[in-house]
Specification:
Low-confidence stretches: none
Bound molecules: adenosine monophosphate
Number of strands: 5
CATH architecture: 3-Layer(aba) Sandwich
Shape: globular
Mean pLDDT: 93
CATH superfamily: P-loop containing nucleotide triphosphate hydrolases
Strand order of the largest sheet: 2-3-1-4-5
Helix content: 55-70%
Radius of gyration: 16 Å
Number of helices: 9
Order of helices and strands: EHEHHHEHEHHHEH
CATH class: Alpha Beta
Distance between the termini: 20 Å
Structural class: alpha/beta
């Protein structure tokens, strides 16, 4: 299975990606984690993206595609992956579609986590206090939410038109969100299987 997690910052993508990946035996690949690792290691990629991340802007597509290619190819040879934080734009989704096709892609499902704006801000400010992420400050949070609304939310239409969009209410306890996501994913996979055998 190839699963894409789409949701605004603070919607629980990272938390749910780990849990869903574990349930289905998939690799969890987070573009944000990979980028932050480059920053922490002081690589040339890290130096190139640090300012974008700290300001809450999107990193250029070419860099993101470069760092994801290897882990995505490796996971594709195994059971598949849960991509967390990618794609973030329709352009990235189109590029990702071509890469997946060249790898002989199986079903790709986009899972959308919905959470109210007030709850997102509450969670992100709490994370900023606890984990000290440089982009979890009030000003940058507002900008990241705006970037999500402008650049990432058009993806929801993009995947809905391809009939592979599942929406889950992420404004609930972690375990409830995971159970609901897995129930919907199982149902969608059954529909795909039935369609294939028709
Ligand atoms: P995240 O951990 O997913 O919240 O991502 C943290 C930051 O990393 C984002 O605000 C962007 O600056 C950058 N980033 C992560 N994924 C992407 C992506 N797919 N495209 C562009 N920038 C990204």
């Amino acid at each position: 299975m190839r699963l894409l997690l789409i949701g605004p910052p603070g919607s629980g993508k990272g938390t749910q990606a780990v849990r869903i990946a574990e349930h289905y035996g998939l690799e969890h690949i987070s573009s944000g984690d990979l980028l932050r690792r480059h920053v922490a290691d002081g690589t040339s990629i890290g130096r190139a993206v640090e300012q974008c991340i700290n300001q809450g802007d999107l990193v250029p597509d070419g860099i993101v595609m470069d760092i994801l290619r290897k882990p995505v190819e490796a996971a594709s040879k195994r059971a598949g992956y849960v991509l967390d934080g990618f794609p973030r734009t329709v352009e990235q989704a189109e590029a990702a579609y071509l890469v997946a096709k060249s790898l002989g892609a199986s079903v790709r499902i986009a899972l959308h986590l919905t959470v109210s704006r007030e709850e997102l801000i509450r969670r992100l400010l709490a994370r900023g206090r606890q984990a000290g992420r440089t982009d979890d400050t009030e000003e940058v949070i507002n900008h990241r939410l705006q970037v999500f609304n402008e650049s990432t939310s058009p993806l929801l239409d993009y995947y809905a038109r391809r009939e592979t969009l599942v929406s889950v209410d992420g404004d609930r306890p972690v375990q409830e969100v995971t159970c609901s996501a897995i129930a919907q994913l199982d149902q969608l996979c059954q529909q795909f299987d039935a369609g294939r055998h028709r």
